[in-house]
Design a protein that fits this description.
This protein is an alpha/beta fold. Helices cover 25% and strands 32% of the residues. It has an eight-stranded mixed sheet with strand order 7-22-23-21-20-17-18-19, sandwiched between helices. Strands 10-9-8-11-12-13-14 form a seven-stranded mixed sheet. It is globular, with a radius of gyration of 24 Å.
Length: 463
């Protein structure tokens, strides 16, 4: 077994499957193959041998797909933020459609449904309104020719399989040009400041994470995450940065003294400017704090929400339940075409934000509830009132079977399911179908070009 694990094989990539892989075959065994496009013949390195299949990664392309292009990013593919940056965008769209179909039909066991083509993104680069970067005193060298980092200062993305090392990046094609300009400035300011990057192994150093947000009106929030509180030092950094980039209207400092590798912390302090920034989805404005969840691709968010409205087919007299509502973006977006919307969310701070956003927009037919969805589903308290439609937008892990069952028991006539993971979407769809619902149609929406991630919207109706 050890010998097979370290062996190179020649294999032809098969159909695309979720996770940026293809389902291929070698000597009668299934191969989950990374970094190869369908039809490409490659030399692959077998990383793991599992029961019934192999995990492998292409290391040399022998026969190249005609859909391959040259990547415009010098950090690709080592960085890992993109999996398809050297693939034609139309072919990326086809791959994502095939992946969603495969999940629905293979995992969900559904074949009789309408599949609608992927909603493509108008901009495939510079589309993210939020980026998070990591500081480290240990640099990951992508090539042997890279000069040694004498300053022991890196800012960028975690290197694959190297928990303590960071790929030092100067530019990222995911974020808008203004954020790239600000990112360059803050790298220069912090590098010359003498402030030490964090060492994740020894738990020493000061600078931990840099989080940047930008609104559709080019207003910027910076959140610098540090190990300790040094307000005068951070204030000096903020002043230098704002003088150069007046678009920065909020500069926050989060203190994370713990061992967890996260950009959240025990305390978030306003250093300069305002505590929140305002952004829009369609005609609605939203207040965003440093830790708020907000869709990262504003250009595609409106298309996604319009698709929810199209699939919901509301007439205006319905009561709607919006599960996993976050800061209330979907609830508020559909408020004009429903009688009432009840948003439900575990995180209490998000519920407070959601109610503020309703008040901000003068919306009175939305209310928001916080609590443990699992417990409420068990107690049956979610369905004290009768709902005509449920919109559910769960996290990547999907919905717990008990929550699915509670929805089935409610006999709600229609469900619009929004998912960022087609495999867990398909798993839940199968449960709904067993429980007496029919998947009518599915449409993927591309929120994340150049990555394997895809949003999926599906409609289930009570039989």
């Amino acid at each position: 077994m050890a010998r097979i694990k370290n062996r190179d094989i020649e294999v032809t990539a098969g159909k695309p499957i979720y996770g940026g892989k293809t389902l291929s075959e070698y000597e009668g065994k299934k191969v989950m193959l990374e970094r190869a496009l369908p039809g490409e013949k490659v030399i692959a390195f077998i990383k793991k041998k599992k029961k019934g299949y192999l995990e492998a990664s292409a290391k040399e392309i022998l026969e190249r797909s005609p859909h391959r292009t040259e990547s415009d990013c010098k950090y690709y593919p080592t960085c890992g933020g993109c999996k398809l940056r050297d693939v034609e965008y139309d072919y990326q769209a086809w791959i994502k459609e095939e992946v969603v179909k495969d999940c629905v039909e293979r995992i969900g066991k559904v074949t009789d449904y309408e599949f609608l083509p992927l909603v493509k993104a108008e901009n495939s680069s510079n589309y993210r309104n939020k980026m998070e970067f990591t500081f480290s005193e240990e640099r990951y060298y992508m090539t042997k020719d890279e000069p040694f980092d004498e300053d022991h200062f890196s800012l960028g993305f975690h290197a694959p399989k190297f928990y303590s090392k960071v790929i030092d990046v100067e530019y990222c094609y995911h974020q808008p040009e203004l954020l790239n300009d600000i990112y360059k400035s803050i790298r220069e300011i912090l590098k010359s400041s003498g402030l030490e990057p964090y060492n994740i192994m020894q738990h020493t150093g000061f600078l931990r994470y840099l989080v940047m947000r930008i609104t559709t009106e080019n207003k910027v929030m910076i959140n610098l995450v540090t190990k300790s509180k040094e307000l005068d030092l951070i204030g000096s950094v903020a002043d230098q940065l704002i003088e150069k980039h007046p678009e920065i209207i909020s500069f926050m400092n989060t203190i994370n003294k713990g061992l967890s590798s996260t950009a959240y912390g025990e305390e978030t302090i306003l250093i300069r400017g305002q505590e929140v920034i305002m952004d829009h989805i369609g005609e609605y404005k939203f207040e965003i704090s440093s830790n708020s969840f907000f869709q990262v691709n504003p250009g595609q968010t409106e298309k996604l929400y319009d698709k929810i409205i199209e699939f919901a087919e509301l007439k205006g007299d319905e009561n709607v339940l919006d599960l996993y509502c976050g800061v209330g973006t979907i609830s508020l977006y559909i408020n004009k075409i429903a009688k009432s919307i009840t948003g439900f969310e575990l995180v209490e701070a998000a519920v407070i934000n959601a109610q503020k956003n309703a008040d901000l927009n003068g919306i009175t037919n939305c209310k928001f509830v916080s609590g443990d969805l699992m417990q409420l589903a068990k107690d049956g308290k979610i369905f004290k009132e009768k709902f005509d439609l449920i919109i559910t937008d769960p996290p990547r892990d999907g919905m717990h079977p008990k929550v699915v069952q509670s929805i089935i028991d409610s006999k709600v006539p229609k469900i619009v399911y929004v998912s960022c993971n087609p495999s867990t979407f398909a798993r839940d769809v199968q449960l709904f179908e067993i429980g007496g619902y029919k998947l009518e149609k599915v449409q993927p929406v591309d929120m994340f070009p150049h990555t394997y991630h895809v949003e999926t919207v599906g409609v289930l109706v009570k039989i």
